[in-house]
Amino acid sequence: MDRSIFRQAFSGSVLRLIGLPIVAIAGIANTSLVVANTGIAAYGIVNTVAMLGALLPFSDLGVGGTVTTAVALDSVAPRAGLKHKLKAAYFVLIAVAFFIVITASMMGMFALWSPLLGQDLSVSDNRIISVGVSVFGLAVPLGLGVRILIGLGRNDLAVAIAMTSSIFSLAFTAVMALAGGHGMIFSLTSFLGLFSAGLISTFLAHHLLRKGAPTRDASQTLLGSKPIRRYDFRALSGSGALIIITIGLPLGLETGRILLSRTGSPMMLSQYALMAQLYAITWSVLSTASGALWTIFAQRRADPNGSIAIWRWMVVSFGLLSAFGAAFLWALAPWAGSVISHGEILIPPVLAMSFGALLIAQSLHLPAGSLLTTPRQLWVQAVCVLVMAALSLSVGLLLARTMGGAGFALGAATGVLVGQFLPDLLLVPRLVLEGTVRRKSRKYPGQRLVPVNYRGHRE
Questions:
Q1: Domain locations in the chain as residue ranges
Q2: pTM for the full predicted model
Q3: Which residues lie below 8 Å from residue 425, measured CB to CB, with a gap of 6+?
Q4: Would you say residue 439 has pLDDT above 70?
């Protein structure tokens, strides 16, 4: 296989790995400050609130993925109309931002966060949560900046900007600590960090679009010199399946935290929250490659056999890398959790092992998630995600009776392996080849097209 593909796929992961000490130090310092100013018992719920954004990835309605694909295809074969697709995407996401802000404000006004999180929260805490979720809502349209950068093949820039979010969060936490803040106010820092990074990514993305305009026509960029008079909502045709995917993923992978907040003790929730934070650092190194893979596969849709070969190599590569990452979590997470919490929170080894299993499961599925991006393929993914979510919740609830938080992590790993990775092995080659035949049949409607399998033989 061409080594340039591996370089393109993993350059972002290498950059993330190089920057990992900075992000890790920022995360550890941020957690230490929050624990010191909220207390051990309150840290779990404050961290859960700060991670509410992870439960709302469907807020972009799948528009981000379609924008990445549109920009990636445009970079291979420039075509008119990119600006209309971008404006349609921004129109939809600005509407989503208004909806999130209004909904969050109403929930804070009527103190509805308390029953949702299963906690006895004060009126001021409810309002603080509403402010944080509103900031997250305003950051939703800004998320297209990273999507555009990935589509342009600048995954390295997207990764660098994503890492600044942790640094911004630490800066806001330090300011609040110096100002004498306490309690729920510290849940705002992650939302503010995300918003700040979004501003930077949006500015750079449209700067690069304008810079590359001579190769595609300056009028195609959203900030081009010619006025935009219409929207192209047809470009968002694959968003319906992406909405289901982005709802099903947090439902299967993140709901355990909410259920634990309602059924477990404060210490169990704090242990789970801290372990999830350590897991997120490890997973971010591997998941960074998904953006580059999305672009690589989108630009090679005309070569199905090559795409299938790349997918197979990536499954093996990610499987090996995730095994090392899981070993890291199993060996070091209990020690790291104790250091970060000043010995107050002890992560059980079984919890670390469960998250390690989840890391391997998600990594094995990651290449297929970036490969299957046509509307039909996304609908297949959507069905698999729903199966995954159902398995994750059912198995997690069953195991949590005896394993606590580890049961939810192990349930999620089971859901991903059975609901997503197993279908990948069975369906990916056929779906990729069928997609190529369908596109050619539309291009040559009068000809009979004979599909070939991934070894190049006629079926």
A1: 3-443
A2: 0.68
A3: none
A4: no
